[in-house]
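Example record used in the benchmark description.
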Amino acid sequence: MADFFSRYYFRSFLEAFADPVWVVNRGFRLVYMNPAAVKKFSLNVDHAVGKRCHQALFENLSPCPFCSLEQVFSSAEVKNTNFTLLDLDGRNHFYALSNYPCSGVDGEVDYVLAVCLDKTEGADLFAEISRLQGLAAMGEYSAELSHEIRNPLNSIEIQMSLLQRMASGLVPGEAAAFLKVVDVVRAESRRLNSLAGDFLKMQKSRRLVLAACDPFAVARNVAELLREEARAAHVEICLQLPEVSILLLADGDKLQQAFMNLMKNALEALLESGRENGFLEVKGWLEEGQVILNFADNGPGIPFARQAKIFDLFYTTKTCGTGIGLHLCRDVIRAHDGEISFVSDEQGTVFTVVLPRTESNE
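Model output (structure tokens):
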């Protein structure tokens, strides 16, 4: 047993430690560093040993503000402290430092063994959990608020209809001015109602009701629903979708929401640009066990400076957009373990949706 506690075995134990460990004497000078400590602080061990720990490890001329070595030497008690340090990866890391007294045969503390644990991942995880909990609570409140907002908005719409009828009793000049105000209020009320509706959809975008679903049939159905709107905007919708039914385990209603947003965005961009001979091409195919759909238009494209934010919540490039549609699309696709991406220039934009072929048993 005595042999186990010999200097050789004790040293080999410390050197196998995955966390940084160092030992200082009563003069606060380093007498030992394990390989993990040498790597962590990027030091030459021969140059570091013999120097004061605050100079060798932290490049401080005076003792560190969190230093507890003096207390450990005087009290012979373990001291724990936490500190942050800018690490080599450019991030502030969170460390837990424990100083253990090492007493000699006379009971005096001759050395202190320091063990430094990097708690950054745990701290980051806790911060992320706290952030998500806050967002979840805010989301629940926002969903309730969106629902409540729609009730008075419906009342405003009804009152605007009544005011519109009342305008018939005014003289023509006054009636025109009166109706102009009514139209402004009605348009803003409808926009707010649409925003509240989109927000409620977004809250439910990751709650899937899975069933047998053909994504190509969903895209074909959305195209038919938008056919008249496209014709009014002088946009031709071209479909290149397989005729063979491909069944996935998916939420057809959610996919329809996502595809509808992508196609309506294309139509609105083409309408705003006033581009002649506009087209929206929807192409689908199977590739390596994945279902792929392309939504391509020849609109003005998304400016490069705005492309990084295009999926951000409430960010929009449209004059009357809510900034929810593409965020909702990404949520729906990711909820299906899929991915959505795009390329865009002045010749147009192509959104690509990739869905894993999770086959239905039906």
